[in-house]
């Protein structure tokens, strides 16, 4: 997968992209991430990328020319998903991450100030995504979060020990609790079933816990549980 990110703060990405799974995925050629500093494409001698809004009012607007210029250096086509990070977009979730991982090429546009001149959106953008119903100062943090959530889904990106298949939301439910050694700490014990070696019973316990946690913490998810997950719940609960 290729990911191009248009930003005025490329250095913000160093920490999240220079560590852990994202670092490894780039080193292993699973993802190729290119950061484009929008200021490099400014035609202003002071590298200014914002200007006053037409119609007046407070706040600045990101100028369109640097974006149009930057796209001349990006090899995109009709299949490329060009994503504008905006609080007005579709709220990001696991389903969107699962869709985006099927794409070969993503481009993220990180806004600042009041946002980017609307004509950039009209001309290039294929999808608007929001991180949630709140306003951040820029699109960099959402671009990092979405990149992380998508790249970890690329086959080979995470090891078997970090498998995402049972993660929360993947099958419509929140995940069951996890335990590791020691078997007891400060009087808190690991549930017996997990020490039993009985894989059928363990699977049953995990499915029940997963369902119970979802009902308690996110009852809104229950009405959208996919058919195959429902079948699995009914099957293990019968046993
Ligand atoms: C201060 S915000 C602009 C908000 C804009 N004036 C509005 O009210 O819709 C600056 C930039 O941060 C990014 N941003 C802020 N909140 C976001 C969110 N919840 N999801 C995704 N991007 C966000 C966008 O790229 C946006 O252009």
From TrEMBL:
Protein name, per record: tRNA (guanine-N(1)-)-methyltransferase
EC number per UniProt: 2.1.1.228
Catalytic activity, reaction form: guanosine(37) in tRNA + S-adenosyl-L-methionine = N(1)-methylguanosine(37) in tRNA + S-adenosyl-L-homocysteine + H(+)
InterPro entries reported in the protein's UniProt record: Alpha/beta_knot_MTases, tRNA_m1G_MeTrfase_C_sf, tRNA_m1G_MeTrfase_TrmD, tRNA_m1G_MTases_N, tRNA_MeTrfase_TRMD/TRM10
GO MF annotations in UniProt: tRNA (guanine(37)-N1)-methyltransferase activity
Record key words, sorted: Cytoplasm, Methyltransferase, S-adenosyl-L-methionine, Transferase, tRNA processing
Root EC class: transferase
Protein source organism: Alkalicella caledoniensis
SUBUNIT field: Homodimer.
GO BP, one annotated term: tRNA N1-guanine methylation
Main location: cytoplasm
PANTHER family named among the record's database cross-references: TRNA (GUANINE-N(1)-)-METHYLTRANSFERASE (PTHR46417:SF1)
HAMAP family: TrmD
Family: Belongs to the RNA methyltransferase TrmD family.
Record-annotated tRNA methyltransferase TRMD/TRM10-type domain positions: 1-224
Binding site for S-adenosyl-L-methionine: 111, 131-136
